[in-house]
Design goal:
One of its GO terms (molecular function) is hydrolase activity, acting on carbon-nitrogen (but not peptide) bonds. By secondary structure, the protein is an alpha/beta fold. The protein has helices spanning 83-89, 93-109, 124-134, 166-178, 207-219, 231-240, 253-262, 271-274, 287-310, 331-341, 345-352, 354-359, and strands at residues 2-5, 11-19, 28-36, 39-45, 56-67, 69-74, 112-117, 141-143, 184-187, 224-228, 244-247, 265-267, 313-314, 377-380, 396-399. It folds into 2 domains: 2-67 and 368-400, Urease, subunit C, domain 1; 69-360, TIM Barrel. It contains 12 helices and 15 strands. A hairpin with an 8-residue loop joins strand 2 (11-19) and strand 3 (28-36). The longest helix has 24 residues, at 287-310.
């Protein structure tokens, strides 16, 4: 992978063999993408392009250019390999810095130009955001949540300090806003368990408390992403007015219809369950639990396909850092799970680019190849609309931050 940095002085013409612009159902052939002063200025057929003396050219014949990919749910402070070892690293500054830098680099190498971090108790990804901003380490743009809003004594102690009531919730959100978080993450329910099919950890907040979270976050201009599983939990989250449902295992068709009507994003993170049956992870589960994992992710696939048909705003997120879900590397796994569910390839790519950009608050900046947008692009060998696997190893990644 060749990394190309775009700065505010960059004047560059990319001569693309083909282009998928983030919206269409097909690729355009023989296109010039003109970058002027760091931003996309024009997209034209090559025969209509005007050569400028101060603009250099990069010949991308034989490659398809498309918007850089976006992972809407990651945990940079976890590695997907060993949860306890990751937590131990948090207390070892050199080791945790090296691990965060590896996660950033791996994400970029797999074509990710933006990621949204779902939180860690120490707010380590806030530091990672600054490293990318200042150029200390290469990486995608990091959209931050800081520490998650969790209930003290319930699931999620590694994500946030835990709250004890409305005043505590408001205090934590004020602290997060002061630290400059981009969004607020709230943990509405526990995890999916594999003891019995459909079993989920208990709800953490009542309706009034969850309404406090959303009201305080929205008052500060921050969207709310809600970790939630179970139909009861999703009902609670939707009633409170959260902006995105994260995971959403065992939600219902009626809830999908509500989400479609309201424009609520869904980030189904199917890899977080399905990858537990990968070669490196499945050894840790007894046979009965493997069966439940299989049923669970197959059910999630069915709901993803249904959500697509209903017009829900689907967004690609992997939950990278979860067991068997690796930064950058597992992104293609998520795309392929959606494809096997029957979601059309163009729709999957839109969920990975233009819709994901909107969910991250980056609409108008990332997710499309069009004038005025940032020059965060990837070039791959082959046509991703015909074979998503060509995204596994981008030939070039262009970033402008």
């Amino acid at each position: 992978m060749k990394l190309v940095y775009i700065n505010p002085e960059t004047n560059l013409d990319l001569l693309a063999g083909s282009l998928w612009d983030g919206r269409g159902e097909a690729c355009r052939q023989q296109v010039v993408i003109s970058i002027r002063q760091g931003r996309i200025a024009a997209v034209r057929p090559q025969e209509m392009a005007v050569t400028e003396k101060n603009a250099r050219q990069i010949n991308l014949a034989g490659l398809t250019v498309l918007p850089g990919l976006i992972d809407a749910h990651v945990h940079l402070a976890l590695d997907g390999i060993d949860f306890q070892a990751s937590l131990a690293r948090w207390q070892d500054p050199p080791a945790r810095e090296a691990a965060l830098a590896r996660a950033l680099r791996a994400s970029l190498e797999h074509g990710l130009v933006a990621i949204r971090d779902g939180g860690d108790r120490e707010g380590l990804h806030l530091q990672a955001r600054e490293w990318v901003r200042t150029g200390k380490y290469p990486g995608p743009r990091v959209v931050t949540t800081g520490m998650a809003v969790t209930k003290k004594g319930k699931y999620g102690s590694f994500l946030g300090p835990g709250t004890t009531g409305p005043a505590s919730i408001r205090e934590l959100i004020a602290t997060l806003v002061n630290r400059g978080v981009d969004q607020v993450k709230v943990v509405v329910s526990g995890l999916v368990t594999f003891h019995r099919y459909g079993e989920v950890g208990s709800l953490e907040f009542d309706a009034a408390e969850l309404a406090t979270v959303v009201k305080a976050a929205h008052a500060s201009g921050r969207p709310v992403m809600a970790h939630v599983n179970s139909a009861a939990g999703v009902d609670l989250a939707l009633a409170a007015g959260v902006d995105s449902i994260e995971h959403g295992y065992f939600l219902t068709t009626a809830q999908l219809e509500t989400m479609a009507a309201r424009g609520t994003y869904w980030v189904p993170t199917i890899a977080a369950i399905a990858n537990r049956l990968s070669a490196t992870v499945k050894q840790f589960y007894p046979e009965r639990e493997k069966e439940i994992i299989q049923w669970t992710w197959e059910s999630q696939q069915e709901m993803i396909a249904r959500a697509y048909r209903l017009g829900v705003k689907l967004v690609v997120g992997t939950d990278a850092g979860a067991p068997g879900v690796y930064h950058g590397e597992s992104y293609l796994d998520e795309l392929l799970y959606w494809h096997r569910a029957g979601v059309p390839t163009a729709a999957i790519l839109r969920a990975a680019t233009v819709t994901a950009a909107a969910a991250l608050g980056l609409e108008g900046e990332l997710g499309q190849v069009r004038p005025g947008y940032r020059s965060c692009l990837i070039a791959v060998r082959g046509n991703p609309l015909e074979d998503l696997k060509v995204l596994a190893q981008p030939e070039m990644v262009f970033i402008d931050f």
